[in-house]
Amino acid sequence: MNLAQLQQIYATPFFDLLERARATFLAHWKKGEVQLCTLLSIKTGGCSEDCAYCAQSARYRTGVRAERLLTAEEVLEAARRARENGSTRFCMGAAWKGVHDGDAKFEQVLEMVRAVSQLGMEVCVTLGQLGFGEARKLKEAGVTAYNHNIDTSEEYYPEIVSTHRYSDRLDTIRAVQQAAISVCCGGIVGMGETELDRLKMVEVLTNFDPPPESVPINCLMPMAGTPLENQPPVDVFELIRLIATTRIVLPEAKVRLSAGRTRLSKEAQALCLFAGANSIFYGDKLLTAQNPGVDHDRELLSALDLSAQPPFANGR
What we know:
TIM Barrel, globular
């Protein structure tokens, strides 16, 4: 998919775009199902990176303190609670630049993965940069997906991060693919980027080989103390257009309505789900950002006559 094609799809009259996205969704997915995912921060704060949106960077005064890496027992208990609440995918995130084979912290993460994988849940981790050797060990331990977002376009990326390059992100994604781990990769809207930046990001995703298994679309949650703390909310119709476009061009990917749902009304979330999103993060917190509570989401899904997708639906 090239940029001109994406621009043409994105510019489709709004309701026509929704109709096309909905038809694409129905051709590939069960219409009444949404995957519920839980995200746990296994190592919070103290990160050496300078991502402008992130409260966990040690470079900013955000009130988030560096914490120790959780134990495997603590993570397993959280995963059990998530499964009991209906989540079928358990994601673990760590605030650091990356991992290296032989590091004690990497060995601890492998232990966590082995434990969680025994629960019958999909296991996703986001650990920053890694190479093929680390990816292969994660695969052997039971990781089913690796999250590594590209965030925005390559051109806008230096405005958001200076401590690594866009190409570093792509190198990690290639290593994950070589290890036969599914790639979970998307971006963040509302960071001051243009619509063109968003479409360039989607263009990169459509040219992954194989395509990403899932595409998280996050709305920026402005965190006090970060360079982006005063960014206004993203226009909801721009968000829905982006979700619909993503659904059309990546029909077999789970499109995840991720961070920022606390800034969206129930009606806006319903339109996002109608336009093709079929996964949400479920639980009171996403790393350090607030998320709608479990009861709130249960009420929303009930009102929309939606149910939780079973584990590994359609083999994905």
